[in-house]
Design brief:
Structural class: alpha+beta
Largest sheet: 4 strands, mixed
Number of strands: 6
Shape: rod-shaped
Radius of gyration: 28 Å
Strand order of the largest sheet: 3-4-6-5
Order of helices and strands: HEEHEHEHEE
């Protein structure tokens, strides 16, 4: 139908003519209450924002000779972060002569990864950056 006929029909029902697809041939329009339509759209957007989860990167710092109990406590905290859906950045700091024994820090990192393996997995292999050994753990996919 022509545009004028559509406008007349919309005014007959006291509604608005809303163009759904202007680029289609012929253009597609709808007769509806535009204020209610806008209200429903805003409400859907608000609900989507409310339900979304923003992923943060939490950071945990270790040293090569950390005690096993301290390592377990930090692993417990990392598991909490992973269960919340956040990523965890693991940093092993080397001081002074410790830098010549990076393998000890790698062993500490491997122990830590074994403790958090049920909730997370390594995103990429740990990299030595200056005096820091950095790795990132992401939460496991839920089945």
């Amino acid at each position: 139908m022509s545009a004028q006929e559509a406008l007349d029909k919309a005014s007959e029902y006291n509604l608005d003519l809303y163009c759904v697809a202007a680029n289609a041939n012929p253009p597609v329009c709808k007769i509806l209450n535009y204020n209610k339509f806008r209200y429903d759209q805003k409400r859907k957007e608000r609900d989507q924002r409310k339900n979304q989860h923003i992923v943060e990167i939490k950071e945990i710092q270790l040293t090569p000779q950390i005690g096993i109990h301290d390592l377990e406590i930090k692993a417990k905290r990392a598991n909490e972060f992973l269960l919340d859906g956040n990523r965890v950045k693991i940093r092993v700091m080397f001081r002074g002569r410790q830098l010549s024994h990076v393998d000890v820090g790698q062993e500490t990192l491997d122990k830590f990864l074994a403790l958090v393996s049920e909730n997370g997995e390594l995103e990429k292999e740990p990299v030595l950056d200056g005096r820091w050994l950095n790795g990132v753990i992401i939460p496991k996919k839920k089945k």
